[in-house]
Design brief:
Radius of gyration: 15 Å
Shape: globular
Number of domains: 1
Strand order of the largest sheet: 1-6-7-8-9-10
Distance between the termini: 14 Å
Number of strands: 10
Structural class: alpha+beta
Helix content: 10-25%
């Protein structure tokens, strides 16, 4: 709760060698740390940006009912992410996603933090595209609904990100200085202006 396409800047960030957690719907209220993930800081579903009454409460209740692991501050975390979406001009997409997930069938894998809500895939992707627009030239790279990502931070502002979704599709990026090279299934498809701390590649957070 990815997430949206969880970012924690979409996807979550970690220290060197850490795991960025589920970049779609992630365990609400989780946080990521060096070399491990507690909960999952994803960029998928997060709070009510435009003020749908009870949306965050409904979302957290739905996750609990589905047997998903959530942090004790699920509702606060949800509202915080909603405020971030509103600041980015994505409140409408965010609220539509939250409202959908709160009333849909949810499947969660608490061992990875990956949550699947097939009825809301379109809403999740719309939110992700709003929060992290696809750079020019990278339109051929699809946006994952939810994924698990790993980041490797190297010296001299160099890093790599690798993400895999529930169908084993793979996204990766290699950033050096102010340029990121974006790959899908290991094939380079584009480059974009980004950094290790603001990754511009679609699907790699």
């Amino acid at each position: 709760m990815a997430g949206t396409g969880g970012t924690t800047a979409a996807g979550g960030t970690t220290a060197a060698g850490g795991t960025a957690g589920a970049a779609g719907l992630a365990a609400a209220g989780g946080s990521s740390g060096a070399g491990a993930t507690s909960g999952a800081a994803g960029a998928g579903v997060a709070g009510s940006g435009g003020g749908l009454p009870g949306s965050c409460q409904d979302l957290c209740a739905a996750l609990k009912s589905a047997g998903c692991t959530t942090g004790p501050d699920c509702v606060d975390w949800c509202n915080q992410k909603g405020a971030e979406a509103a600041t980015a001009g994505c409140a409408a997409q965010y609220d539509a996603m939250i409202d959908c997930v709160a009333s849909a069938a949810i499947t969660c894998d608490n061992s990875t933090g990956m949550l699947l809500v097939p009825a809301c895939y379109d809403a999740q992707i719309a939110h992700k595209k709003c929060m992290k627009p696809t750079p020019a030239g990278c339109e051929s790279i699809p946006i994952p609904v939810t994924s698990l990502c790993q980041a490797q931070m190297n010296p001299n502002e160099q890093c790599t990100f690798e993400c895999t979704d529930q169908t084993k599709d793979q996204w990766s990026s290699e950033c050096s200085g102010s340029t990121c090279t974006c790959k899908y299934h290991g094939t380079t498809l584009c480059t974009c202006a980004g950094t290790c701390y603001k990754n511009c590649c679609p699907g790699a957070y």
